[in-house]
């Protein structure tokens, strides 16, 4: 699963911890179970991709690990909510007291996890897919510690493949670029570098950009423009009976 802090959707004055289903290397659950040549080919090439990056990392058990990772992801995907279900803002708003998480996933040590993640002070959390976390507990105990270590290793390599040497970059693009998205040519390295920096330092870059290109006088002009728009809109609304 993944987690982040955001405004409580039902209390905008407070921030709260959100938990969301995760753990898959393919876009969503449908890619693991939909029949047909297209999806079967994607699943085959995904295992080949995982094997390739593990081999590049000098793992002697690359084939075995790649197949086990696929099996583990299928077990997780089997309990993932669909895209339609995830768009339901009410069903995905499930507030839990932290002390109650153990009842949801009894085989996962939530208090230890929150402590090691540096968020032990959280009192309440939002679990977007409660049934997934409940099933995750069973999947967790189904596989060995070594399986989870290998799963984590494969995920770590894959998630950083675009920042590693060129052979990793090419393996990652062959699958995620060509196979999944149908993109034939990867972007130039400088463009990928700019995207990486922008994605990691967006707020800092934004501050530098504003200081250089958005001078105080430009801000004053925009404030006046917005003020004039508000006055104009207010005047128009007051002249429309059903809106005033």
Notes on the structure:
The protein has 244 residues and is an alpha+beta fold. Among the domains are: 2-145, Neutral endopeptidase , domain2 (Neutral endopeptidase, domain 2); 214-238. 59% of the residues lie in helices and 10% in strands. It is built from 12 helices and 4 strands; from the N terminus they run ββααααβααβαααααα. It has a 4-stranded mixed sheet, with no helix packed on it. The longest helix is centred in the last third of the chain and has 23 residues, at 216-238. 15% of the residues are buried. InterPro entries: Peptidase_M13 (IPR000718), Peptidase_M13_dom_2 (IPR042089), Peptidase_M13_N (IPR008753).
Q: How far apart, in Å, are the first and last alpha carbons? A: 48 Å
Residue-averaged pLDDT, rounded? 94
- What overall geometry do the principal axes of the alpha carbons give? globular
- CATH classification class of the domain at 2-145: Mainly Alpha
Mind telling me the C-alpha Rg? 24 Å
- Fraction of residues in H or I helices: 55-70%
Largest sheet: 4 strands, mixed
Lateral arrangement of strands in the main beta sheet: 1-2-4-3
Would you identify the CATH architecture of the domain at 2-145? Orthogonal Bundle
| CATH fold category name of the domain at 2-145 | Neutral endopeptidase, domain 2
Q: What is the number of E strands? A: 4
Count the DSSP helices: 12
Helix and strand string, N-terminal first?
A: EEHHHHEHHEHHHHHH
Beta percentage is: 5-15%
Broad structural category: alpha+beta
Query: Regarding quaternary structure, how should these chains be classified?
Result: single chain
Give the CATH superfamily of the domain at 2-145.
Neutral endopeptidase , domain2
């Amino acid at each position: 699963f993944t987690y982040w802090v955001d405004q409580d959707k039902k209390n905008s004055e407070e921030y709260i911890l959100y938990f969301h289903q995760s753990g898959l290397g393919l876009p969503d659950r449908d890619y693991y179970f939909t029949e047909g040549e297209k999806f079967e080919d994607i699943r085959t090439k995904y295992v080949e991709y995982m094997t390739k990056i593990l081999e590049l990392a000098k793992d002697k058990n690359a084939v075995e690990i790649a197949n086990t990772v696929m099996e583990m992801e299928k077990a997780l995907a089997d309990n993932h909510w669909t895209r339609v279900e995830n768009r339901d803002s009410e069903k995905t708003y499930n507030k839990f007291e932290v002390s109650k998480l153990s009842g949801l996933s009894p085989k996962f040590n939530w208090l230890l996890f929150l402590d090691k993640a540096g968020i032990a002070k959280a009192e309440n959390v939002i679990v977007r897919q409660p049934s997934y976390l409940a099933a995750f507990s069973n999947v967790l105990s189904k596989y060995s510690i070594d399986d989870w270590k290998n799963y984590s290793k494969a995920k770590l390599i894959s998630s950083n493949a675009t920042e590693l040497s060129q052979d990793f970059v090419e393996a990652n693009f062959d699958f995620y670029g060509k196979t999944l998205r149908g993109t034939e040519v990867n972007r130039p390295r400088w463009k990928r570098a700019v995207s990486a920096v922008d994605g990691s330092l967006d707020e800092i870059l934004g501050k530098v950009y504003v200081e250089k290109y958005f001078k105080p006088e430009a801000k004053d002009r925009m404030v006046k423009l917005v003020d004039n728009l508000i006055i104009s809109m207010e005047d128009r609304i007051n002249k429309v009976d059903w809106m005033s």
